[in-house]
Design goal:
single chain; alpha/beta; five-stranded parallel sheet
Amino acid sequence: MAIDSRPETGGRLAIIAGGGMLPHHVAEAAQAIGENPYIIALTNETGLDWSDFDHQFLGIGNFKAISAVFRTEGIDRVVLSGAVRRRPEWRDIKPTFKTLARVPGVLKTLLSGGDDAVLKMAIELIEASGARVIGVQDIIPELLAQTGPLGAIEPDRDDWKDIEVAAAAAVALGRLDVGQGAVAVGGRVVALEGPEGTDAMLARVAGLRTEGRISTRRRGVLVKLCKPQQDLRADLPSIGTSTIEGARAAGLAGIAIEAGRALVLERSATISQANEAGIFVTGIDRAFLRDLR
């Protein structure tokens, strides 16, 4: 029997669902603790079947309709979950009366802001509608990575050198609000994550390996970290089975993620796949990262 660990708010939880499997994991976990989540599925972003949940498909810029859902469904908490690959055009923005005065700033952020700036803007607009934004980790804390090896394989001395180099690159990249991941091979940064995402970056590394532009004698690592200025309620770094497959195809020795601030999706399957592929997955703590930030 599930233990009801819901906060006593008297309201309902909404999940604004982007792409990927994470929103569905969050919805199922919310049900398991007694919540009745309402899914706001983002048009052209999520391709999942939401028929088992109360849901509605809405455009990401339709604040008027989203605010109406909050009122009619009694929403008091919101989780932002999943990838958003398409920013709304100005003509897609449908403000509420409360957000009308913010439209010029919204458009400026959409045109020139990085992903973190856009997420912070979205959080402000949601909370202006009367709901409180919470993190995925508040619903599924067991997804968070712990410090140290998560599987049967540990990084060796050379791997730790690559982790340090890639972590420094990831911190610098995050400070620019560009991405969260970097790959280092033999003490040299060979790839930085951009808007294409982690899987596409790893595919690029695999291509460089095939072309002979990266040494086949040295394996290398992927590091994924929170951006230094990141709001932890949205877009925590995450890895899953596709990340393990991408790392294997790229010839990497392993993956390092930030303990307590990164998510491991489908943990059992992900770690099992990493063990079978001979790839380490390890959580690095804040003490390791302190000097880099």
